[in-house]
């Protein structure tokens, strides 16, 4: 993370699989390795989080190179109350409470936010070639149609009614 350049480099992920400790893993695809903009709307709250909760150094399994797995120290920005890598159940409780507090539908997760964001982009005038670049995946013709007459579209119209919502 580079606050001065306002960018984040995505080079590994924290994997959480039932029955084993969280570990560092390679990303799913080649296009997942990238540097993305860190907008002010994210940078400022993230800087405040770091001010109150500095990154914690933890011992963690590193399998980013599957031929050379090892255990090493790594800094984690988001940890459990005990200063450990966040388990899925812990994050789920935090997410559910936060989602409820802002009025999101029950069981709404990241994937729902992704669809909602795509809907905002398309209905805001973004080209269908721009949207997959932002979402880092292909947007098939069938998916484009789904965004125009879907739950996500109705939710978009409910939250921010533009003139074209009927």
Question: Care to describe what's here?
Answer:
The C terminus is likely disordered. Helix 3 crosses helix 6. Strands 2-3-5-6 form a four-stranded mixed sheet, with no helix packed on it. A two-stranded antiparallel sheet has the order 1-4. The protein contains six helices and six strands; from the N terminus they run E-E-E-E-H-E-E-H-H-H-H-H. The chain has 166 residues and is of the alpha+beta class. The chain folds into two domains: 95 residues, no CATH class; 50 residues.
Topology:
Elements lengths: L6 E4 L2 E3 L7 E3 L8 E4 L2 H13 L3 E7 L7 E7 L11 H14 L8 H14 L6 H6 L5 H8 L2 H9 L7
Parallel strand pairs: 3-5
Antiparallel strand pairs: 1-4, 2-3, 5-6
Helix pairs in contact: 3-6
- The percentage of residues in β strands lies in 15-25%
**Level of helix content?**
25-40%
Across the major sheet, the strand order is 2-3-5-6
Largest sheet: 4 strands, mixed
